[in-house]
């Protein structure tokens, strides 16, 4: 098995992140530094990543209703609560993608680097649905322009779907639902900033076929076998 795949299956990180660790010289196999991405290993080899030996462990899959003011990472240098702190598990878990510190909603947590790679790879276009509250009353023509894609930092965003749910004329606020098929950092905030609207509240309510049904903020549940298989099938459906 290729080293980066073995690392992802051990829950170190996604395959792409594992490749970065190899290229940085942070991986040793049987005492020898390895920087070759195609290097072959077996479960009998001693693999050390960033000074710690890794071993395969049973795969775990969780759906978390991420609260605001939590960090979508394994550790935080500022000592803030991370999404991993909310999950009771002894496995080396990590979030699939991320939600901003002030964003709530559906976030997957796992130790399966292979699944993480599938779900975060741009070519698979996993659907994400968000509820958004913005400061200001958005115009219909602005919604159409955003739906068709706009230039942000020199790159045109993919087409999306935006539904206006409610206008609060008194307080000058707009409530919307937006459906995206890409997961770039701050994309929702950047989209509305295109027309100088500030996002006041953002929550992800759906990821692929998964929803927040029966969960309160801060709660989580394990995914069942059927759900895990369906997530893996997104790979074959879009490839």
For this structure, the CATH topology of the largest domain is Alpha-Beta Plaits
Which structural category fits the helices and strands?
alpha+beta
Strand % is 25-35%
**The top level CATH class name of the largest domain:** Alpha Beta
Number of domains: 3
CATH superfamily of the largest domain: Pseudouridine synthase I, catalytic domain, N-terminal subdomain
Poorly predicted regions are: none
From the alpha carbons, calculate the radius of gyration and give it in angstroms: 20 Å
Overall form? elongated
Average of the residue pLDDT scores: 93
Helix content: 10-25%
Count of helical regions? 6
- CATH architecture name of the largest domain: 2-Layer Sandwich
What tags apply to this protein structure?
single chain, 239 residues, alpha+beta, Structural Genomics Hypothetical 15.5 Kd Protein In mrcA-pckA Intergenic Region, Chain A, Alpha-Beta Plaits, 3 domains, nine-stranded mixed sheet, four-stranded antiparallel sheet, 6 helices, 15 strands, elongated
Structure description:
By secondary structure, the protein is an alpha+beta fold. The chain has three domains: 3-53, RNA-binding S4 domain (Structural Genomics Hypothetical 15.5 Kd Protein In mrcA-pckA Intergenic Region, Chain A, Roll), CATH 3.10.290.10; 61-123 and 211-238, Pseudouridine synthase I, catalytic domain, N-terminal subdomain (Alpha-Beta Plaits, 2-Layer Sandwich); 127-207, Alpha-L RNA-binding motif (Alpha-Beta Plaits, 2-Layer Sandwich), CATH 3.30.70.1560. The chain is built from six helices and 15 strands. Strands 5, 6, 7, 8, 11, 12, 13, 14 and 15 form a nine-stranded mixed sheet that branches. The chain has a four-stranded antiparallel sheet with strand order 2-1-3-4. A hairpin with an 8-residue loop joins strand 6 (94-95) and strand 7. Helix 1 packs across helix 2 (15-23). The longest helix is centred in the last third of the chain and has 14 residues, at 225-238. It is elongated and about 65 Å long. The relative contact order is 0.16.
């Amino acid at each position: 098995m290729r080293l980066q795949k073995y690392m992802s299956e051990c829950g170190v990180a996604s395959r792409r992140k594992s490749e970065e660790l190899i290229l940085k010289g942070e991986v040793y196999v049987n005492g020898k530094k390895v920087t070759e991405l195609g290097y072959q290993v077996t479960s009998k080899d001693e693999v050390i990543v960033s000074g710690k030996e890794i071993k395969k462990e049973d795969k775990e899959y969780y759906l978390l209703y991420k609260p605001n003011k939590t960090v979508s990472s394994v550790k935080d240098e500022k000592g803030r609560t991370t999404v991993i702190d909310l999950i009771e598990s002894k496995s080396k878990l990590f979030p699939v993608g991320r939600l901003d510190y002030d964003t709530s909603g559906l976030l997957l947590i796992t130790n399966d680097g292979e699944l993480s790679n599938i779900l975060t790879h741009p070519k698979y276009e996993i659907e994400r649905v968000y509820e958004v509250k913005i400061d200001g009353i958005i115009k219909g023509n602005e919604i159409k322009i955003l739906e068709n894609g706009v230039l942000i930092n020199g790159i045109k965003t993919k087409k999306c779907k935006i539904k206006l749910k409610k206008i609060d004329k008194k307080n000058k606020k707009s409530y919307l639902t937006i459906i995206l098929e890409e997961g770039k950092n701050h994309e929702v905030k950047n989209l509305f900033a295109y027309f100088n609207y500030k996002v006041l509240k953002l929550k992800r309510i759906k990821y692929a076929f998964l929803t927040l049904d029966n969960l309160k903020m801060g709660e989580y549940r394990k995914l069942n076998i059927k759900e895990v298989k369906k997530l893996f099938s997104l790979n074959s459906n879009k490839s």
